[in-house]
Amino acid sequence: MDAETKTMTRKHGRHLRAPVLPDEEAAIKRNAAAAGLSVAAYLRNVGVG
């Protein structure tokens, strides 16, 4: 994600929910932090590419 994308405000029309196990939640949060992203931004990047 470049600097211009990070500064844009996102207005979400939809929220997705996915059940995850506690260890999966921890891994997602850990990976997001390692990438310097919020969990939402991390999951968007992983899901959309």
TrEMBL record:
<dbReference type="GO" id="GO:0006355">
    <property type="term" value="P:regulation of DNA-templated transcription"/>
</dbReference>
<dbReference type="InterPro" id="IPR053842">
    <property type="entry name" value="NikA-like"/>
</dbReference>
<dbReference type="InterPro" id="IPR013321">
    <property type="entry name" value="Arc_rbn_hlx_hlx"/>
</dbReference>
<protein>
    <submittedName>
        <fullName>Conjugal transfer protein TraJ</fullName>
    </submittedName>
</protein>
<dbReference type="Pfam" id="PF21983">
    <property type="entry name" value="NikA-like"/>
</dbReference>
